[in-house]
């Protein structure tokens, strides 16, 4: 095999951490394919772990995490892989980066770790939580993050709606409401810049989900997401752009 994996002392893996890479296997399978027995922990969140080092340069660990009940030796679960997120290289610390499409680490050392484990027949993958967060195609799943208000908005008149052909050129979802809106920090700014293009009866907001919402729905979103504690206008039931940007109509900060 191209890479070596050896057992190391626990002190070498103290600063390692989990970055959503897992091995889907049983304890017996990992033990057999690595040729190294795990440590057993009577207490704590981890029952079994392997303290390892790749090519005598990258300490890493394989361990179960918060598995309930007694873990059977032949039970297949997601074992976490932990490694240092920063390495001292050429006199400087270099941060770990992930490939935007695959989610796998860009750093050569960790790619070599994945290769070394797969050379031994172990199934290395992203965790279920990672796949939920990013989706099966490796791109960020915006629905996992709570919706937030990001701009004031007016809907445009029908003749000013962006045509579908131009949407594809910039890669944004055709269902995104941005193509039916004009947005800005405050509604007055939008009217000043796009007054003739927008329907003046549709003052609302644009959200992080790519949705246009009216003032009432916007108020619920802003409060639920923690952007504001309360609305200061419209009887406290509707959102005003000054609520989001912390300025009242006189330019004073709202506390």
Distinctive features:
255 residues, alpha+beta, 2 domains, seven-stranded antiparallel β-sheet, four-stranded antiparallel β-sheet, 7 helices, 13 strands
Please characterize this protein's 3D structure.
The protein is 22% helix and 25% strand. It is α+β, with helices and mostly antiparallel strands and 255 residues long. A hairpin with a 7-residue loop joins strand 3 and strand 4 (48-54). The protein is elongated. The chain starts with a strand and ends in a 10-residue tail after the last helix.
Spatial shape: elongated
- State the helicity in percent bands: 10-25%
| SSE order | EEHEEEEEEHEHEHEHEEHH
Average pLDDT score: 79
Quickly count the domains: 2
Distance between the termini: 63 Å
Q: Give the uncertain stretches in residue-range form.
A: 87-96, 165-172
Q: Biggest sheet, in brief?
A: 7 strands, antiparallel
- Calculate Rg over CA atoms: 26 Å
Compose a concise summary of this entry.
This protein is of the alpha+beta class and 255 residues long. It has helices at residues 27-34, 108-119, 128-134, 164-170, 187-194, 215-224, 241-245, and strands at 5-7, 17-25, 39-40, 48-54, 58-63, 77-83, 86-89, 92-95, 124-126, 149-155, 181-184, 204-207, 212-214.
Write the layout of secondary structure elements.
Blueprint: E1 5-7, E2 17-25, H1 27-34, E3 39-40, E4 48-54, E5 58-63, E6 77-83, E7 86-89, E8 92-95, H2 108-119, E9 124-126, H3 128-134, E10 149-155, H4 164-170, E11 181-184, H5 187-194, E12 204-207, E13 212-214, H6 215-224, H7 241-245
Antiparallel strand pairs: 1-4, 2-6, 2-9, 3-4, 4-5, 5-6, 7-8, 10-11, 10-12, 12-13
């Amino acid at each position: 095999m191209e890479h070596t994996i050896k057992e190391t002392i626990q002190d070498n893996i103290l600063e390692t951490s989990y970055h959503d890479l897992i091995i889907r296997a049983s304890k017996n399978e990992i033990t057999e394919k690595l040729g190294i027995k795990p440590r057993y922990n009577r207490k704590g969140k981890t029952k079994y772990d392997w303290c390892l080092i790749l090519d005598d340069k990258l300490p890493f660990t394989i361990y179960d995490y918060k598995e309930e009940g007694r873990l059977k030796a032949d039970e297949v679960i997601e074992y976490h892989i932990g490694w240092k997120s920063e390495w001292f290289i050429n006199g400087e610390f270099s941060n770990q980066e992930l490939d935007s499409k695959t989610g796998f680490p860009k750093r050569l050392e960790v790619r070599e770790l994945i290769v070394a484990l797969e050379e031994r027949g172990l199934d290395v993958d992203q965790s279920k939580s990672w796949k939920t967060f990013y989706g099966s195609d490796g791109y960020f799943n915006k629905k996992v993050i709570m919706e937030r208000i990001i701009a004031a908005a007016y809907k445009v008149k029908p003749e000013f709606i962006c045509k579908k052909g131009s949407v594809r050129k910039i890669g944004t979802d055709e269902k995104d409401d941005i193509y039916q809106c004009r947005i800005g920090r405050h509604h007055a700014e939008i009217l000043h810049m796009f007054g003739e293009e927008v329907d003046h009866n549709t003052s609302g907001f644009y959200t992080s989900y790519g949705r246009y919402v009216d003032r009432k729905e916007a108020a619920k979103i802003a409060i639920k997401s923690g952007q504001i504690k309360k609305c200061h206008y419209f009887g406290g039931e509707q959102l005003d752009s000054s609520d989001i940007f912390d300025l009242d109509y006189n330019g004073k900060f709202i506390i």
